[in-house]
Give the backbone structure.
Amino acid sequence: MSDEKLRNVLSSLAPVARQLDVLPSGRPAADASYVKLDTNENPFPLPSIVMQGARAALERQYLYPEHDNISLREAAGYAYGIATDQVIAGNGSSELLGLLYRAFLTPGDRVAMLSPGFSFNRKLAMLHAAELVEIESAETPSLPIEKLLSGPAKDAKFVLLANPNNPTGLYVPLADVERLLARSERLIVLDEAYVDFAPDNGLRLLSRYANLLILRTLSKSYAAAGIRVGFGFGHPALIGRLRNIQNVFNMNVIGQAVGISILTHRAAYEGNHRHIRDERQRVSAVLSQLGFCVPPSHANFVLARAPVGQDGSWWQAALAKEKILVASFPDKSLERCIRISIGTKDQMDAFLAAIKAISARIKTRSC
Ligand SMILES: Cc1ncc(COP(=O)(O)O)c(C=O)c1O
């Protein structure tokens, strides 16, 4: 292979692709012997009725998926009490986040996000040569509305609010979100990936505010992260523009069928949501007893800040040695934190046993 040819090819890359390093080949997924609590999945099987739909969809594998996800969008509209043309369907809500960046931003534009926030937005902003203005959120459940409307955030093309937020689990009251919507002329993207574990949601604001776009996903509360189904809800004029620039056949036949079936059988998940809320409380209480600081979470994970002098990445590595995977973060404000997804009772028992044993070892050593 000629080096010269490769150099020529690489020099034709657009600047944004040229400046990024080549990705390493990737790493295999953790095998089943690990307890995986690092990416906020919901480790329960699909209800059997939904599984039947998935199998039936596989038999239509030779067909292209339905154009424009029309049946799936109709099902979402029906489930959430809005019109089909207020719904866009995505290959996970992360596809829709990417679409928003593509639709709204030209190089040099700004986007505002609460910090700490969903880190994927950093990558999206970089890919679009946009500036991500990160507005520090208070540890109290309220929105820094003035900061989101003034200063560097003032001319952001859109504002991203994840409610509940990832990675903090913090939920801000809807009244705050509504105040921001009322005072802002910008698009407010209300990312409700975790909202089924929270006390309220922003759907009823849709009919009142044309500058609201809500994102939802079936990855978290509906145990379908691997199927990749997400939604955006907003004004038909905005949704239509977004659908216009979406990849044709962005979803597959299984995602479409499972999505419709989950939306039709949402009641089958009530026990799952209750279980996650109960386990979240149990895990938070034990972590607090062990000296971690655990702010109230309204999502399917908890963020735990280790005692002073301890480091989140150290805890992550120590737990990984016990075959428990949790997340840690590079951000300065989160350096003592680990984020633990809430899974089955057995998974949480294994996590608690491991963290208790490690805590006891550290205490013995320090005496
Ligand atoms: C706040 C938030 N939004 C969106 C997503 C993306 O979810 P998905 O692409 O699986 O729908 C995540 C996933 O972790 C998230 O935490």
